[in-house]
Design brief:
The complex is a heterodimer of chains A (380) and B (277). By secondary structure, chain A is of the alpha/beta class. Chain A is built from 12 helices and 4 strands. In chain A, strands 1-2-3-4 form a 4-stranded mixed beta sheet, with helices on one face. The chains are: A alpha/beta (380), B alpha/beta (277). The interface between A and B is medium-sized, with 33 and 30 residues.
Chain lengths: 380, 277
């Protein structure tokens, strides 16, 4: 009679009789919400077996129906017991269960899972992989230096329509988000500076604070963060997808250098656009500070700009400009490297995009710190 | 052509009645009526672009037909409520053409996920079921491997193990042999037939691989991409010899339509000039 078993006790019975252990499967396995596990059945059967030579009979005469779940347990229990050299006999099992168990093939001896790798071997492999990754990075940077002159003289394997699309993607398409972020960053700096400086009557110096902070640090860094998230992730995901679809292999097969065709346009576009975006971002950041100075301190735009001209030397813009170029190169190389080294599946595409953003942000901070140390040492 | 009588009372298996498939105003196939018997293998065949995979996507409720009806054991697919449809979907297993294994999960996790989502079995209970399903398709002990580490044939078998994870009553296969070498393809065909016998499955396979069609099919339908209708229905071995339409004979005998027409005499429609294969 069909029954809904809340526990697995209605689904099997173990008896020891006539020097055999009988594991009888009973009830309706299809409707059961809990099933016995093979580990548990084997453990209980082995307790009954004693010295291990007692044969085990798997009896299916008490089953209400022949659900495939029974076959899964018959198969698993049989495999377990045979591995312990316990004789097993299957008796009165429905034909469907027999057919399924016969169809299942145990793992081949050679197909066994490899054991844990010895730690020395693991260490060696990890070191070799790191060295290979370092060599790939060096190759990418070397290629960048070697191929850029070819692009300059028009001998690189680049589709100019792709290059112009990259220029638009990295430049014009990024303007809205660069505008919003840098205008607000300049305004926030202006507010914080205005409150602090006006406390001791130095509100006039707000132009110094906003100008130097924006030109030297914030415009380049904030723009680089935006580009890492917006453009770097897109580049990495696109290249990883091409890798998964074997498009990059197809390029190699027709004699096209994937570096020149895919990396060079992205690298050049980002390297050219980043400093231009920096100048735009710096102007907006200073504009944000100027609006706040007018609103909070009643400093007119003319006074603000006059003070800015006196206080912010051109070298601050030059430092920000050079940083922007470095950030552009970093984001382009990181995104292309991680995209082209991605594995050939969907998960790797997302992973490449995420890694690009993380690596780029860390790299931007590291480069900025190096610049701070160097400019401090040089007194600029 | 043996026609299915749509006026008969509901019967076991899958019944397709007067189905019209369309994307917008473009009709893919029209007036499709056929019956898939329980525990049989039914092959949907036809040349590339005739709408085989589209028909399969409608039968597994991924698309809604323009007209017509599909019922499983008398239960109508598109008129039942959401809960009944969900219950019906759990009785359907699908092997997609690209296998569609989730690349971020191991093979074991791929097969175990339907059990996790649709049963109350514990992790240990699911582990037994997954191990058995993988053993059924010849992948015993491969639970911890990632799909990307498997060959094409192994991926197909892993996809098949996932498709039968919930012990479905109906198994849909979209181009199961596509991209496989003849030996692997033949093994997969044997596996499909064994699963039909052991699990008493109704298998619906979309394919244009002739060796597979002749090996596995108990019954078949030929979708014509010119008339946009099913122009043959029956055992493909019999259709290869005496199908009413020249295009069906040409397809099943790997001939051009002209050659088929010359060999067997004219079919009911004027012979087309195009090569079928």
């Amino acid at each position: 009679m069909p029954q809904s078993a809340a526990s697995d006790s209605a689904l099997y019975r173990i008896d020891a009789r006539n020097e055999t252990v009988v594991l009888a499967f009973t009830g309706d396995w299809g409707r059961a919400t809990r099933l016995p596990t093979s580990d548990r059945l084997v453990e209980r059967v082995r307790v009954q077996c004693g010295d291990g030579s007692t044969p085990v009979v798997l009896d299916g005469s008490g089953l209400d129906n022949a659900h495939p779940r029974v076959a899964a347990l018959v198969y698993a229990v049989t495999q377990h017991l045979k591995s312990h050299s316990i004789p097993v006999e299957v008796r009165a099992m429905p034909e469907t269960v027999h057919a399924l168990v016969d169809l299942a093939r145990p793992p081949a001896a050679s197909g066994a899972q490899a054991g844990r790798m010895p730690w020395l071997q693991w260490l060696g492999r990890a070191g070799r992989n790191r060295m290979a990754a370092g060599a790939s990075t060096a190759e990418l940077v070397g290629n960048a230096f070697a191929s850029t002159p070819k692009l300059a003289v028009g001998k690189a394997q680049v589709r100019w329509v792709d290059f112009m699309a990259m220029i638009r993607e990295t430049g014009a398409s990024s303007l809205p988000v660069v505008t919003i972020v840098n205008l607000l960053i300049g305004a926030v700096l202006g507010f914080v500076g205005a409150v602090q400086l006006s406390a001791f009557g130095a509100g006039l110096y707000l132009a110094d604070l906003v100008g130097i902070a924006v030109a030297r640090e914030m415009a380049a860094i904030m723009t680089a963060f935006i580009m890492a998230g917006r453009v770097g992730a897109t580049f990495a995901a696109h290249l990883a997808t091409m890798q998964a679809n074997e498009e990059i292999d197809a390029l190699r097969m027709i004699g096209v250098s994937p570096f020149e065709f895919l990396v060079l346009p992205r690298l050049t576009a980002l390297t050219l656009m980043m400093p231009l975006l920096f100048l735009y971002a710096a102007a907006l950041g200073i504009g944000g500070g100027m609006i706040v100075a007018d609103m909070v301190l009643n400093t007119s735009p003319a006074s603000f700009l006059g003070r800015l001209q006196d206080a912010v030397a051109a070298r601050h813009f030059v430092i920000g400009f050079i940083k922007a170029v470095c950030f552009g190169v970093l984001i382009a190389l990181a995104s292309c490297y991680l995209g082209m080294r991605a594995g050939r599946n969907a998960a790797e595409v997302g992973r490449a995009a995420t890694r690009t953003v993380v690596v780029s942000i860390i790299g931007i901070i590291v480069i900025d710190a190096i610049f701070a140390l160097c400019t401090n040492a040089l007194g600029v | 052509m043996a026609r299915f009588d749509a006026t008969r009372p509901p019967e076991r298996g899958i019944v397709v009645r007067d189905l019209t498939l369309a994307y917008g105003s473009a009709v893919v196939q029209q007036s499709l009526s056929f019956h898939v018997a329980p525990a049989s293998i039914f092959v949907i065949m036809g040349v590339s672009g005739c709408g085989k995979s589209t028909l399969l996507r409608h039968m597994i409720d991924l698309e809604r037909a323009e007209r017509g009806d599909i019922s499983f054991d008398g239960q109508r697919l598109w008129t039942t409520d959401a809960a009944e449809r969900a219950a019906l979907q759990r009785r359907i297993g699908v092997l997609f053409q690209s296998t569609a294994l989730w690349s971020s999960m191991t093979v074991g996790e791929n097969v175990g996920l339907p059990l996790q989502l649709h049963t109350r079995l514990s992790t240990a209970e699911i582990r037994d079921q997954v191990a058995f399903k993988l053993a059924l398709v010849g992948l015993a002990g491969q639970e911890s491997r990632m799909p990307s580490e498997l060959s094409g044939g192994m991926q197909k078998r892993a996809g098949l193990a996932r498709a039968i994870a919930l012990d479905p009553d109906y198994l849909f296969l979209d181009e199961p042999s596509a991209g496989l070498d003849p030996i692997t393809s033949q093994r997969l065909d044997s596996l499909i037939m064994n699963l039909r016998d052991a699990l008493q499955l109704s298998v619906i396979a979309v394919t244009h691989e002739l060796p597979s069609i002749f090996t596995i099919a108990d019954d078949s339908i030929y979708l014509d991409n010119e008339s946009r209708r099913a122009i043959a229905h029956g055992d493909p071995r019999a259709l290869a010899a005496d199908a009413e339409h020249a295009r069906v004979r040409a397809f099943l005998n790997r001939q051009s339509v002209d050659a088929s027409t010359r060999a067997e005499g004219d079919g009911p429609e004027s012979p087309a000039r195009s090569e079928v294969l």
